[in-house]
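Ticket #4471: complex job returned nothing on first submit. Input attached below:
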Amino acid sequence: MGLKGAGINLIATLPDVNLADLLREVEEDRDLTHVPLCREEEGIGICAGAYLVGKKCAAIMQNGGFFNSNNAIVSTLLQYQIPLLLLIYYAGDIGDRTFGTTGSMTEPVLRPGTDQTRASVNRRRKTSGGASGNQRSARPACGAQVVVIRTELLS
Amino acid sequence: MKRFDCLKALAAVAGDALVVSSAGAMTLEWNALHPSDSNFRVRTLGLCSSIALGMALGLPRRKVIALDGDGSLLMNLNSLATIARMQPNNLTHIVFDNEVYEASGSKKTATGTGTDLVGVARAAGIKNSLWANSGEAFALAVTSAMKGGELCFIGAKVSTERTQVPPFPLDEVENKYRFIRHIEKTEQIEIFKTNLPASYV
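Support reply: We reran it on our side without changes. The output follows.
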């Protein structure tokens, strides 16, 4: 599993039917500490706590769960500069009408936290704030790295 | 009961336990009584119990104490079910229940209208859940929690009385660095990698 290769040893999850195979692998892997969640936001706390004592963590959830987690992502991960890998299933992606609204809001909410958008934020600031302004605006985004899993990746 | 007196009793037995506390007057009182780099202050309301669970799972041989409030725990009741599911035997979850959102204007919480947090914890699956109804009972409960090897949940009804203590001396990032450095030192592990140029090594 690539996650293990990256040194991940604790994974918090909340199921999505499209992630079933991945979650089964996580569940069956004896080398991983697997924490099944009741609500995604608690997973952000669990991963932050485990990071503080030396674990390398990932959280796997659907994008609805990512919305659920936003206060913790902002006021724990970003505020304390705690890194966490978030693997988010993209419900409501193009062609999926069942979760269309959730899908349509996913990228706008994600945008300020991703590398791609950090770059675009920096570009915009360059004209007014100078280099130090860019660094300040980019720094808080160091907390979370997000990988959005599109359906075609799973098929 | 007065929260400050309970915290005094805890400070006497906490030893080298890691202490995660929900932001507010309680954190300031605890830090004044037991200043240590093993203290971690939580800024996200509700997340105290979950952060403590993550620490307890990450370091199963180290005692971890969560100092929670009623308003905070009410926001993350599901964490009790997850804690019960994981059963970390090194975690002690303490809730000081003053029945108000103390830091937000002292409006009544749901425990003020009858919600029983110890009952909720027990029903969630934390068997060793109890109300400490006096200062002596609290001291006894935390002493046995620190000596024993079992997951436990201790509730204490306290007054809204605050003790005048200095402000918390660290910002969030400094709190994180000092806490992690403390873990590295006391557990003899490396958490932060030091990237030095090859010529320095």
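Chain B touches chain A at residues 18, 20, 40, 42-44, 46-59, 62, 76, 78-79, 81-82, 85-86, 172-173, 175-176, 179-180, 183-184, 187, 189, 191 (CB under 8 Å). Closing as resolved unless it happens again.
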